[in-house]
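Design a sequence for this backbone.
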C-alpha cells in the first residue's frame, strides 16, 4: 500500500487509512513494525468510537467494548460523492479502480449523438443530475441492446449513476447481466444493486451471475443481492437447495454469508448443504458457515457437522471442514470434541487436509493437548506447510507440549525458514519448560532469515537470566538491519542480567540508534537494570532533548529508576 501511494497521488487522489483504535495504540503497533507515524506517506486516522467506520458500514463489535472494521476501499471525489466501494485485499489497486471509472465515463460519452435524451443522460452520468433524467430511461433501455458493446456499457453505466430514477429499466438490466461483454455485465449488475429493493424482479438473473467467470461480476452480484434484501436471500437459498447445476448450488452457498439479516436461515440451509451429493457444494457450504454473523452459541450446531466433514470422501471437503473448525467463533473448549478427528486428519493422504487440521488444532489451544504426539510427528512431514503449521499448533497448546521440545529444536534446522520461525515461536510459548532449547535459540540468532532472528530474540527475552549465555550473540545482533530485531536484542540483553557494566556500556551506545523505537526500548531496558545502570545517566539526560516524545518519556522514566534522588533534584517528573 505504501508503495502505491505515490502513484495514487499522481492519479489525482489521496490515500487515508482509518483504524478503529486509540491513537496511542496505533502508534505502538506502527513502532513495533519499525515505523514512525510521520514517516508514512499517508495520514492515519484514529477512530476509536467507530464513528467513521459505522458511517461507511464497515464497523462491527468484537466484544462488549472492542470495535474493529472490515477492510474496505472507498473512492470519494472532490465534492465528497462516493464513487466506488469494494472489498479491500492485498491486491486492491485503487489506480485500476480509477481507470475503470474513467473508462466508464468515456463509454458514457459514446452515448452522445443525435438523440437529445441520450445527450442529457451522458451529462447525468458525469454527475450533473438534471430535471429530465427519467425521460432518458427509454432511450437507455434501447441502448442496452446496441450492437456496440461500448454503447451497451455506457448505457449500463448511465443507469448506475441515475439508479434512483431507473427502476423502469430493471427488466432491460436483468437481460444485460447475460451480456457477452464482462464489462457490460458488471455495470448492469452494479446498476441493479444501486436500484436496491426496486430490482427484485432481477433477482433470478442476479443469482445466475454468482457463477460468472469474471470475479468482479460475481462480487458486484453479491453486493447487489445484499442490497435488494430478504427476497434475494430466499432466492439464493432456493438456488442452493434446488438448482440442478452443482456449480450454481456451490456459488449460492458461497454467497449466503453476504445476507447478514438472514444469517439464521442461511445457517440452517448451509448445514443441509453439507449433505449435498456434489463435493463442490459441500466444500462451499463448509467454507461459508464460519462467516455468517451469528453469536458463538448460535454457531455451535455446526461443530458435529464439520467434524463429520473431516471424514468426507473428497479432500476438498475435508480441507474446508478443518478450516471451518479453525475459523468458527466458538470457545476453544467447545471445539475440544473435534480433537480426535483432527488428530486423525494429520495423517490424511492430502497435504492440504493435514495442514488445515494442524491449523484447527492450533485454534483449540491447550484443549488440544491430546494431539501433541501426532503434531510432534507432523514436524517431520514431507510438506513444509504441514511442518510449519504443526509447529504453530504446538505453540498454541503451550506448556502442555513440553514433550516436543527436542523435536522443535531439530526443527530449528529445517530447510524452510517459516518452519524455523514457527518452531522458535512454539518454544517461546512453551516457556520455562523449554529452557533446554536456549543453546539452539542462541544459534538461531545467526539465522540467514531476518524473521527467524527476530523470533529467536523474542524467545530469549522470555527466558531472561536463563539466556545469560546469549550475551555475546545479542550484542552482535544490535547491528542487525531490522529495527525491531535491534530493539528486542536490547531488551533481551538487559533481561539476561549479565555483567551490568558490559550491558550498560553496550546499551549506552544503542541509545544513539537512528530509529526512535530502538532508542525508546533501549531506554526502557536500562530502566530495568535500576541503579546498576548509573553510568547511563548522562546519556539518558541527553535523550530528554530527543525529537521523539516516546523516547523522552522512556528516558525520564529510566532516570527515575536508576537514580531517583538525582532525578528529583533535577526537577524531572
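Sequence:
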Amino acid at each position: 500500500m505504501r508503495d502505491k501511494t505515490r502513484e495514487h497521488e499522481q492519479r489525482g487522489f489521496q490515500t487515508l487509512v482509518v483504524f478503529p483504535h486509540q491513537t496511542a495504540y496505533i502508534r505502538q503497533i506502527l513502532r513495533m513494525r519499525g515505523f514512525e507515524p510521520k514517516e508514512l506517506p499517508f495520514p492515519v486516522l484514529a477512530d476509536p468510537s467507530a464513528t467513521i467506520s459505522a458511517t461507511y458500514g464497515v464497523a462491527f463489535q468484537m466484544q462488549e467494548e472492542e470495535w474493529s472494521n472490515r477492510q474496505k476501499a472507498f473512492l470519494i471525489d472532490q465534492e465528497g460523492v462516493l464513487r466506488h466501494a469494494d472489498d479491500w485485499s492485498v491486491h486492491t489497486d485503487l489506480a485500476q479502480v480509477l481507470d475503470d471509472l474513467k473508462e466508464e465515463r468515456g463509454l458514457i460519452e459514446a452515448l452522445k449523438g443525435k438523440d437529445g435524451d441520450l445527450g442529457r443522460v451522458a451529462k447525468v452520468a458525469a454527475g450533473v443530475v438534471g430535471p429530465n433524467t427519467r425521460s432518458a430511461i427509454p432511450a437507455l433501455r434501447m441502448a442496452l441492446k446496441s450492437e456496440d458493446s461500448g454503447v451497451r456499457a455506457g448505457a449500463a453505466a448511465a443507469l448506475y449513476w441515475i439508479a434512483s430514477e431507473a427502476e423502469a429499466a430493471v427488466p432491460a438490466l436483468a437481460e444485460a447481466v447475460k451480456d457477452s461483454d464482462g464489462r457490460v455485465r458488471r455495470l448492469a449488475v452494479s446498476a441493479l444493486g444501486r436500484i436496491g429493493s426496486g430490482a427484485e424482479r432481477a433477482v433470478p438473473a442476479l443469482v445466475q451471475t454468482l457463477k460468472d467467470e469474471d470475479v468482479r461480476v460475481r462480487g458486484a452480484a453479491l453486493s447487489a443481492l445484499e442490497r435488494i434484501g430478504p427476497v434475494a436471500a430466499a432466492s439464493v437459498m432456493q438456488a442452493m437447495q434446488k438448482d440442478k447445476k452443482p456449480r450454481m448450488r456451490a456459488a449460492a452457498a458461497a454467497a449466503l454469508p453476504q445476507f447478514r439479516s438472514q444469517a439464521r436461515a442461511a445457517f440452517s440451509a448451509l448445514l443441509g448443504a453439507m449433505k449435498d451429493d456434489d463435493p463442490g457444494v459441500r466444500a462451499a457450504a463448509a467454507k461459508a458457515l464460519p462467516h455468517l454473523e451469528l453469536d458463538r452459541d448460535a454457531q455451535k450446531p455446526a461443530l458435529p457437522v464439520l467434524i463429520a466433514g473431516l471424514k468426507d470422501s473428497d479432500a476438498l471437503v475435508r480441507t474446508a471442514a478443518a478450516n471451518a473448525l479453525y475459523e468458527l467463533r466458538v470457545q476453544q473448549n467447545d471445539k475440544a470434541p473435534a480433537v480426535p478427528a483432527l488428530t486423525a486428519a494429520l495423517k490424511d493422504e492430502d497435504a492440504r487436509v493435514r495442514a488445515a487440521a494442524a491449523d484447527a488444532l492450533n485454534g483449540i489451544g491447550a484443549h488440544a493437548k491430546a494431539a501433541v504426539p501426532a503434531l510432534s510427528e507432523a514436524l517431520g512431514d514431507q510438506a513444509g506447510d504441514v511442518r510449519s503449521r504443526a509447529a504453530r499448533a504446538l505453540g498454541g497448546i503451550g506448556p502442555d507440549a513440553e514433550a516436543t521440545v527436542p523435536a522443535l529444536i531439530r526443527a530449528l534446522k529445517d530447510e524452510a525458514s517459516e518452519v524455523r520461525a514457527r518452531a522458535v515461536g512454539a518454544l517461546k510459548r512453551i516457556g520455562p519448560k523449554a529452557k533446554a532449547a536456549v543453546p539452539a535459540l542462541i544459534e538461531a540468532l545467526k539465522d540467514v532469515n531476518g524473521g527467524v532472528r527476530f523470533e529467536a530474540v523474542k524467545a530469549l527475552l522470555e527466558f531472561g537470566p536463563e539466556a545469560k549465555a546469549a550475551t555475546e550473540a545479542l550484542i552482535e545482533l544490535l547491528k542487525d538491519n531490522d529495527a525491531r530485531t535491534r530493539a528486542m536484542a536490547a531488551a533481551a540483553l538487559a533481561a539476561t542480567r549479565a555483567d551490568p557494566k558490559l550491558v550498560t556500556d553496550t546499551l549506552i551506545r544503542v541509545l544513539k540508534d537512528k530509529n526512535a523505537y530502538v532508542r525508546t526500548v533501549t531506554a526502557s531496558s536500562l530502566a530495568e537494570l535500576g541503579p546498576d545502570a548509573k553510568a547511563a545517566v548522562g546519556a539518558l539526560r541527553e535523550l530528554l532533548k530527543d525529537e521523539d516524545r516516546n523516547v523522552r518519556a522512556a528516558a525520564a522514566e529510566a532516570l527515575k529508576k536508576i537514580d531517583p534522588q538525582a532525578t528529583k533534584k533535577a526537577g524531572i517528573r
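The radius of gyration is 29 Å.
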